[in-house]
Amino acid sequence: MPAEMDWDNTVGNADDVRRVFDSVPTVLVGFEGPDHRYVAVNEAYRNMFPRVTAVGKPLLEVAPELEGQQIHEMLDRVYRTGEPQSASEWRLHLDIDGSGTIQERFFDFLATPRRRPDGSIEGVQFIIDDVTARVRERIAAEARAQEMTDRYRHVRDSATVMQQALLAPSVPVLPGADIAAEYLVAAEDTAAGGDWFDAIALGDQLVLIVGDVVGHGVEAAAVMSQLRTALRMQLLDRRDIAQALDAVDRFREQVPGSKSSTLCVGALTLSTGAFRYCTAGHPPPLVVSTDATPRYLEPTSAGPLGSGTGFPVRSETLDVGDAVLLYSDGLIERPGRPLAASTAEFADLAANILGGGGLPLDEASRPIDRLCSQTLELLLRTTGYSDDVTLLAAQRRTPPAPLRMTVDANLEAARAVRARLRDWLSGIGADSEDTSDVVHAISEFVENAAQHAYPIETAGGIVVQAALDGHGNLRAWVTDHGQWKEQGDSARSGGRGLAVAEALVSEIRVTRGSDGTTAALTHRLTRPARIVTDPRVSPVADKHGIDYEFRTMVDDDGRIVVVGDVDSLTASKLGQQISLHSRGGTKPVVVDLSSVTHLGSAGVSTLADAHHQARRNTADCVLIAPPGSPAHHVLSLVRLPIAAGESVLD
């Protein structure tokens, strides 16, 4: 037996050691056993997490919200293998102070094994560093710059730029399925990879594709582009999966470097849930059912392009609420993980997230967006990744009901329509930019009908309808039963409003007849695919709780700050504020439109008048509207000068 250690002379007096441990400014925790029971915490830990006493309790009893966020799994690996684990800038959602309120924080971790005298592992030591301020400062700087961090910007070569330009920029918004896509560019190999994805809407059918070309660099990106285009053309020509892949395989003979490319192609019939797929040398799809049970579909025995095995197809059925995930091998072939373990980890994590686990503060996002973004974030932050990673997912859903509403023909009509329309568009999955564009166009239609179709306020005089078709096209109509009459200034602003609306959406048609006028629009709805260089960068969710109520204020710098919807009801108030502050256009004025949620034609006319009046008086009227904001979009179309300053309400 080994001699017993003289602890007092070797380590120090027990009371002294305890005081030293407790006073270390870094957060230190000692866990014991497979359930990671707290056995020691220092003062820095108690200050960071002022909960009910943790000592003696398992981690998940003290912080149950951490389940599924990969912390317990990290401790499991250290306890099981004896290998230290570290983590950098992990995003966690947890109850910091025991109040029951979940907060988002970022942490660095170091977990090491603690051994008994005989060498067996009795527990895990955990060092924690809260780096939330550092991460938020960096994220804010990146957002302001609207570009990648220097680390990635310097390593991106022309092949990477080319590859990302050739990838699908978006996925369709469809009535029978929610769709999301994520593409993670490998950090260790800055040459572009050959992954690609596609989601093609064909009426009642949605085709999902993930492919992988052998190699990296310009050559791989060029091959990827040719194969993607060839397959897309076959599918748009209504070839079935086997026929399309046969044609692409023949085309491959003309494309050097395309041999051994792998693909997974799946076709989902939205009305029935029938799912036909082929795994051409590619990992099989993962299905997560409505009860959060994961299962991998059977491979179809098809080989890669050029293998000569043919392209047999298998069939499955997805219920409403089921999700299917297609992915590249970079997701499961991760550093330091056996393939079988990595595959099981992916399935379990995806099921947990779709079942409501993961990072709870992201619940405002669509389930399919959470599934993609959190799966990559939580899975890859434990191991890293050595290849590009693609994840494409679709969740079958019950088609949303079309919108139909009848409003009185008066000055309040457009405001009522905007509120209902925004809710409906959010429900069908439209993103914020499409929502802003469609709401603007429909609002102009309604205001024009209210102003021109009837001589007096008319009950139920305007009907608004909207529906989403299987190709991802939104179709909307605004109908009145009056006789139009152009009226001075309102006619002028209405003409400008219609021109702006035509620039915002795909197509507009106005039909006038003896029984009234119908203004109709068609607009293709898509959601952007996320192409990122760091899985720790969480997606920016569509904003909730936006303030649409109009108001103005003057900030400490003397700028007029405008919030909410600027329409025919509120434009005159804005004009009065600008005139008062600029003394009738004779003094410089700055108008911050960063928080404007809708800028109608009446508001545009007000701003144009203020700008022209200032120019006549050799004064300045500066309009601030950051790129991407509703005001910037509209003002760019009418060519009013814009200063892209920062919002004072950030």
- Spatial order of strands in the largest sheet: 13-12-15-16-7-23
Q: How big a fraction of the residues is strand? A: 25-35%
Helix content: 25-40%
Quickly count the helices: 18
Mean pLDDT reading: 89
CATH class term of the largest domain: Alpha Beta
Shape call: globular
Radius of gyration: 29 Å
Distance between the termini: 66 Å
CATH superfamily of the largest domain: PPM-type phosphatase domain
Q: Runs with pLDDT <50, length 5+?
A: 147-157, 489-494
InterPro entries: Bact_Sigma-Reg, HATPase_C_sf, HATPase_dom, PAS-like_dom_sf, PAS_4, PPM-type-like_dom_sf, PPM-type_phosphatase-like_dom, STAS_dom
Organism: Mycobacterium kyorinense
GO molecular function: phosphatase activity
Domain STAS: 560-650
